[in-house]
Design brief:
Blueprint: H1 6-9, H2 20-34, H3 42-56, H4 58-69, H5 81-106, H6 110-144, H7 152-180
Amino acid sequence: MKSLNAFSLLGLPAAPQLDESLLAQRFDELSRSQHPDAGGEASAFALLTEARRQLSSPAARWRHLLELQFPDTSLDGALPPSLMDIFATLGPALQKSQDLLRRKTNASSALTRALLTTEAMRHRESLEMTATALADRLDSLQSAAAAWDGTGTTLAAWAREAAFLEKWQAQTRETLWLLAMD
């Protein structure tokens, strides 16, 4: 069975760089007729929704394009040093934040919780700076997609790197949210 071609389904060019407003517009247009509430089939709408999900994430979009155009290209490979540098900062920051959250949960007095709130603010500031670095790196990958050399090797490297960046962004957002809760 041939896999879903998200680009074709949404009427978009199969390319690593994508205009997100055009993606949203195409999804909205097709949703009007394919949504079950508008008389469409649930299965067709589910495919449309999956196509949008795949193309909305740079990592998923690049993996999908790789599967379509370079099915024999592997996603295996070493991470670039820039990602190792980010992880060297992010890993310990997330661990320290998780430790703080455990201490905050187990705090038995209001004074202890108040003191930990001050520490949580410092952790949030550090994680926010790391979140900015993650977003900047992902933005630079997406900018590079405008000058794609047309090879599966480059696409695989981008997909691999973006998958880590998106995962780390999600972990950072979740930790920031937990740290902000009182």
